[in-house]
Amino acid sequence: MLLKSIAILAALFVIRYLAKQVLLLGFHKTAFTHWPGPCRSVSPVEHGAEDMVLTKNGLAIITSGIDVAYRSDVTDPRITAAPGKLFAFNFNKPEQNATELEFAIGRIPNFPLMDKYLGGRNETRIFVVNHRQDAETIEIFKLIGDIAKPKIEHIKSVQNPLFTSVNDVLATGPSSFYATNDGYLRFTAWRVLETLLSRPWDQ
User: Fold this and answer.
1) 22-59, pLDDT tens digit by residue?
2) What confidence tier does 109 reach under pLDDT thresholds 50, 70, 90?
C-alpha cells in the first residue's frame, strides 16, 4: 500500500511538472511571424544576439556568444565554441556590418545580458552581465568615440555574494543598478534539482 501511494504521488508530480512546462513553453498558443521590414544576417555576429541596447543616436550594442566551459551540462558545440563578444551596429547605416568592440581587461568570456545608463554630458555607460567561471559579475563600461568608430572603456567589475545566477540588469545610475537571479544556486547538480522542482527561489 505504501509503495502504491509513493508511486501515485510520483506520477502526480511528473504530470504536474510536464503540464507546467507545456504552459510555460506556450505549445497551446498560436504565434504569427511578423517583422517591420526586410531582415538579414549581420556580420561578424556569428552566434546570434543574446541582448541588445540602443543609444539615442542610433547605435546598438550587441552581446553575442557565451563561454560555458564551467557547465558540464552543456555539450552542444554550437554553444561551447561561441566565445562572448560585444559588437556595435549603426542603425543610421543599416547596410553596413557590425564592428567588434575591444577593451583592455583580459578575457571576459560571457556576455549574455546588458542595459545602458545615459548620464550627463552625453556619457553612456553599458552594464553587462558576466557569467565568469568563478563568480557572477556586472561589468560596467563607458561608451567612447563617435558613432562612426565606437569604442568602450572598462570602468569596473561589480561582484556580490547575492549574485548567484544573474539573469538581467537594469541600470539606474553611473555605478548603480538592479539585478535579478533566475536561480538561487549556480550551475551544479543542485541547480538541476531546483529547476525540476520549479521552486521560486530566484531573486
Assistant:
1) 888 888 888 787 777 788 888 888 777 878 888 888 99
2) very low
Could you tell me the pTM of the whole model? 0.74
Closest alpha carbon to 126 in 148, 103, 107: 103
The residue whose grid cell reads 511528473 is: 14
168 annotated to a ligand binding site: yes
Annotated ligand binding at 194? The verdict is no
Q: 190-196 contacts: CB < 8 A, separation 24 or more?
A: 191/165, 192/73, 196/17
Instruction: Let me know: does 105 contact 154? Beta carbons within 8 Å.
Output: yes
Give the span between the Cα atoms of 178 and 4, in whole angstroms. 48
| pLDDT over 70 at 104, yes or no | no
| Residue 67 annotated as part of some ligand binding site | no
> Hey, which bits of 55-135 come out as E strands?
59-64, 85-90, 99-101, 114-118, 124-131
* Per-domain residue ranges of the chain: 47-197
CATH 3.30.365.10 fits 47-197, yes or no: no
